Amino acid sequence: MSINYTELSKEISYALRHAPWEYELELDAEGFVPIEQLLFALNESEKYERNIDLTDLEHIIKISEKKRHEIVANKIRALYGHSVPQMIKKIAGTPPAILYHGTTHRALKSILNEGLKPMRRQYVHLSIDTDMATQVGKRRDSTPIILQIDTVKAEDAGVHFYIGNERVWLCDFIPADTLTILR
Ligand code: HQG
């Protein structure tokens, strides 16, 4: 039997985004933990067929269509999605003039009233293209609403943008008057 990499990836996301303390891990300012500590915690439960090693972590990053995790030297982190109380420091940047956000029909009215809020996470998550936004929105709605964000107007209104990965941008908030419904 081989390792269930989807299950492993989800567990790593859970540990690094939401509940590091359940794994006796402490995230540094940028969300990194020592790989050795993560491996120790994952293997302690003995829930996988065999011990997880560095090659497995590298494999998950390689096969995933979303770049969720990153290994730098002897540390690993989640690149976005955090809900831990300690604010994870992200690098600020200037995004493309237009970004997208896929969401549900249910959330639309409230979003158009109050703007995009981080809800349970630390940042609002935005996509660089409509394909990605559709994929994000489909998690919760089979025909997601795709919102288009004027990032220049948002920056003028004081919004700061941060780099998640090559396809995901983060920010604290998106004012309603910088949003339009694409479809
Ligand atoms: C909505 C996944 C009502 C927002 C994805 C979204 C992404 C509002 C939900 C990443 C609102 C929050 C993040 C408002 C925002 N009123 N609803 N004012 N403002 N919302 O999961 O962006 O596969 O926290 O539209 O692919 O869906 O896990 O955010 O529907 O990249 O790697 O509140 O997580 O990546 O949901 O997803 P989320 P998200 P992974």
Supply the key terms:
ADP-ribosylation fold; 183 residues; binds ligand HQG; single chain; 20% strand; alpha+beta; three-stranded antiparallel beta sheet; 2 domains
Report what the structure shows.
The protein is α+β, with helices and mostly antiparallel strands. It has two domains: 5-78, Arc Repressor Mutant, subunit A; 98-181, ADP-ribosylation fold. It is 32% helix and 20% strand. The protein has six helices and nine strands. The chain has helices spanning 5-18, 35-44, 54-63, 105-114, 130-137, 151-156, and strands spanning 33-34, 69-72, 75-78, 98-103, 124-127, 145-150, 161-163, 168-171, 179-181. Strands 1-3-2 form a three-stranded antiparallel beta sheet. A hairpin with a 4-residue loop joins strand 7 and strand 8. Helix 1 crosses helix 3 (54-63). The relative contact order is 0.15. Bound molecules: ligand HQG. The site of ligand HQG has 18 residues, from helix 4.
- What is the C-level CATH assignment of the largest domain? Alpha Beta
Instruction: Report low-confidence residues grouped into runs of 5 or more.
Output: none
- End-to-end distance: 44 Å
Task: State the share of residues found in helices, binned by percent.
Answer: 25-40%
* Tally of DSSP helical segments: 6
What's the CATH topology label of the largest domain? ADP-ribosylation fold
Ions, cofactors and other ligands present here are:
ligand HQG
Mean pLDDT metric: 97
Shape: elongated
